[in-house]
Specification:
Layout (H helix, E strand, L loop, with lengths): L20 H5 L56 E14 L7 E14 L5 E7 L5 E6 L7 E2 L5 E7 L9 E8 L3 H21 L15
Antiparallel strand pairs: 1-2, 1-7, 2-3, 3-4, 5-6, 6-7
């Protein structure tokens, strides 16, 4: 289905994002005393009823099985979809607010993916790099247009971003590729090719994202 799908800086975390062991369990290089204070000297002359001196036996330490923690992959809603294109970029939205001059506003940077569903739908989905915050979740429709930006470093397109909520309206977005200069033109062309493939596979999706009769 098309439900929901980031830079983290924290001195208590390792590069992988998990808390460092020293922060959770203390200094792992510091010796740890497991069984209380150091053993005291055994009183001299202690003997049992038979008169034999015996050193006290220490009780065996109780052992507990270690529980292995398994990392579970978080569900994104894309498990049953086919990704036909992915790229890194910055997403902008063209806003026309009352009392303000129309302008482009950056919505976030991350990975843009173009997915096809098993039910004949297609959508663009984008998540912030690092924390995977959802930036764009937009169904595609027949007749949707994709235009090269001036300079050839990105594409603009109309869409309805479901991240904005149930009252989202169709507005103009632009994706500026964040790849090396030697590959940006190729990436733009590959994105255009992927959008054409996606639009050709749609099963009659209207501009509002509702499934309807095929006009073609």
């Amino acid at each position: 289905g098309f439900g929901g799908f980031g830079g983290i800086a924290n001195t208590a975390c390792t590069e992988s994002g998990f808390p460092s062991l020293s922060k959770v369990f203390g200094d792992t290089n510091k010796p740890v005393q497991l069984f209380g204070k150091g053993s005291s000297a055994v009183a001299a002359g202690a003997a049992d009823e038979d008169g034999d001196d015996e050193a006290p036996e220490s009780a065996p330490a109780e052992t507990k099985p270690l529980i292995a923690l398994q990392e579970e992959a978080a569900a994104t809603g894309e498990e049953d979809e086919e990704c036909i294109f992915t790229t890194e970029g910055a997403l902008y939205e063209f806003l026309t607010e009352e009392g303000k001059a129309p302008s482009w506003k950056e919505r976030g940077r991350g990975e843009m993916r173009l997915n096809l569903s098993k039910t004949g739908g297609a959508r663009m989905i984008m998540r912030a790099k690092g924390n995977f915050r959802l930036i764009l979740n937009a169904a595609m429709w027949k007749g949707q247009t994709f235009t090269k930006m001036e300079g050839g470093k990105g594409l603009s397109f109309p869409c309805k971003n479901a991240v904005a909520g149930p009252d989202a309206k169709v507005t103009l977005f632009a994706l500026k590729m964040r790849v090396s200069a030697t590959h940006v033109v190729q990436q733009v062309e590959e994105f255009l090719t992927a959008t054409k493939k996606a639009l050709d596979t749609l099963s009659g999706v209207s501009e509002k994202g509702d499934t309807g009769p095929d006009d073609e």
